[in-house]
From TrEMBL:
The chain crosses the membrane at residues 127-151, 158-187, 362-382, 388-408, 442-460. This is Uncharacterized protein. Keywords: Membrane, Transmembrane, Transmembrane helix. It comes from Didymodactylos carnosus. The keyword Acetylation does not apply.
């Protein structure tokens, strides 16, 4: 169905093509031949900004190709047949056939072959995929109906500015519950092995898992943050996680993309924002699934990729934007950086463990969620009281809520206005958590409408970023750590997958405090 949608938008998509990315800016310039696999968050960039103009270039991908997660294809790229592009690669220009590409490094790979017989889906399998999509729609509908019934039975007599945030939370938890039940009892465990892309096993175990987790991704946003009960959920799903409260997983949703029984996590690890566990690699029309092991006291930086078969050593640090695979050679205590991961001549300081009060953490979790959503709903009702026109209402709400969010962020970070080392409470204290929840809701519900506009520039400036004139930023997620960001004049930040972070300070803070 997604391929049909892209064809309606003007893209030329061949047969048996699997596309898991939505980062396509010019579909009518996209040409993908038969039996090609495009992984998640691959940027297919056909539009490039210049000083005062923009340039359009075609994106051509041949047959039997595989493009890894978070890769960027741009500047008129032309990939021929039987090409394997590794994850996080930046590719442009002409890529010859039967090669393995990692950015500008291209090497011949005789193991690459045609995979038409292993990608062609039967009619029954296509019907099964359609039924899975209908199941997603039914689960969403049931969660809304149950929430409405609870509201009519118990909450209708309560003030609406209290009942709506509670219903919002109930709906989110119902969606999470449905997803976890499907993952546990319908999809189940996935044994290591190699499975053709047109096998029933792959469609049910891997494809359906990606579909249901990505479809309910917003509901899982309430579980984002360093919560110990995330580990309890993974244990229930089958992951091998050591007992203890020292395991920190920042973005919980990405750990669900990986089959839980293939994930082994030892005590003391820290996985920061958007760490991706990729338990399946696609090559020659087959999905190779293997285990992932994270040993004691390992630290995984923002946006790093941990591929199938990886065994991350104890006390090691995987830096931001680093690709760790089964071929990575390292030992305990190493610091790794780069694509692919390489050992750096640095020494990691000793880490003091920190115990967390789980009961207090759960109370703080529910409190911060309710306060953030209560604030969002209250501001919406406040605007509705004064304005009846829907256009003016939305505009007024965006302005007032943006001002409130900037003020709250400035107050919470007033003591952290300069780079340095701060206490753990400054980073994940309850006040800061409320602001983070508010910002997440703002990104999902408002941020997608102001991307690429000057309002986003004003918003970043109000958060503390120093941004010059004639600057274009396409997505609200392009900047983090706003008070430490300086952007000069005439800058274009286009890709929604691009992010500027002062992540080294954040990792240093948590490493010293934990």
């Amino acid at each position: 169905m997604y391929n049909c949608y892209l064809r309606l938008c003007g893209a030329q998509i061949g047969k048996n093509v699997r596309i898991y990315t939505t980062l396509i800016d010019a579909p009518d310039l996209l040409n993908i031949n038969d039996s090609t696999f495009i992984s998640s968050d691959v940027v297919l960039n056909g539009l490039s900004y210049q000083d005062t103009t923009y340039e359009l270039n075609s994106v051509h991908i041949g047959s039997n190709c595989s493009v890894g997660d978070c890769s960027v294809l741009y500047n008129g790229v032309s990939i021929q047949d039987n090409v394997y592009v590794k994850s996080m690669s930046s590719v442009n220009g002409y890529i010859p056939s039967n090669t393995l590409s990692h950015g500008q490094q291209i090497c011949l790979n005789e193991q690459l072959s045609s995979s038409v017989d292993q990608t062609n889906l039967m009619f029954q399998q296509q019907v099964y995929q359609f039924v899975c999509i209908l199941l997603i729609v039914c689960l969403n509908s049931v969660s809304v109906i149950i929430t409405y019934l609870i509201y009519c039975q118990f909450l209708c007599k309560i003030y609406v500015w209290i009942s709506l945030p509670v219903c919002w939370m109930i709906w989110s938890f119902l969606c999470i519950l449905f997803v976890l039940i499907v993952l546990k009892f319908v999809i189940g465990h996935v044994p290591p092995g190699s499975y053709p892309l047109n096998s029933w096993y792959y469609i049910h175990k891997i494809w359906f898992r990606r579909l249901i987790v990505s479809s309910f991704s917003y509901s899982f946003a309430i579980l984002e943050g360093f919560h110990s009960f995330n580990c309890a959920i993974l244990r229930w799903l089958g992951a091998k996680i050591e007992e203890g409260n020292n395991i920190m997983i920042g973005r919980f949703i990405y750990s669900l993309h990986c089959p839980s029984n293939l994930l082994t996590i030892k005590d003391g690890i820290s996985a920061f924002d958007e760490v991706r566990f990729i338990a399946s690699d696609i090559l020659n029309g087959k999905c190779v699934v293997n285990r992932i092991t994270i040993n004691k006291d390992a630290q995984l930086g923002n946006y790093c990729l941990i591929h199938s078969g990886s065994n991350v050593p104890a006390h090691s640090v995987i830096a931001t934007m680093t690709r760790f695979t089964s071929e990575t050679v390292c030992k305990d205590g190493d610091i790794l950086l780069g694509l692919p991961a390489r050992v750096m001549p640095f020494v990691s300081p000793p880490v003091d463990q920190m115990k967390i009060n789980v009961n207090g953490e759960i109370f703080t979790f529910f409190l911060t969620q309710l306060v953030a959503k209560f604030t969002f709903v209250l501001f919406g009702l406040f605007c509705m009281y004064f304005v009846s026109n829907i256009f003016i209402l939305i505009l007024l709400f965006i302005i007032l809520y943006s001002i409130l969010l900037c003020l709250c962020d400035r107050l919470c970070t007033a003591q952290m206005s300069k780079p340095g080392t701060y206490s753990f409470d400054n980073i994940v204290g309850w006040k800061r958590r409320i602001v983070v929840r508010m910002f997440r809701d703002y990104m999902v519900l408002i941020g997608q409408f102001i991307g690429g506009t000057q309002w986003l520039i004003y918003f970043f400036r109000a958060l503390g970023s120093k941004i010059g004139h004639d600057v274009l930023i396409s997505d609200i997620g392009n900047l983090a750590d706003h008070r430490f960001i300086t952007i000069d004049n005439h800058v274009r930040i286009k890709s929604p997958a691009f992010s500027i972070q002062v992540c080294g300070n954040f990792m240093k803070v948590l490493r010293k405090c934990m």
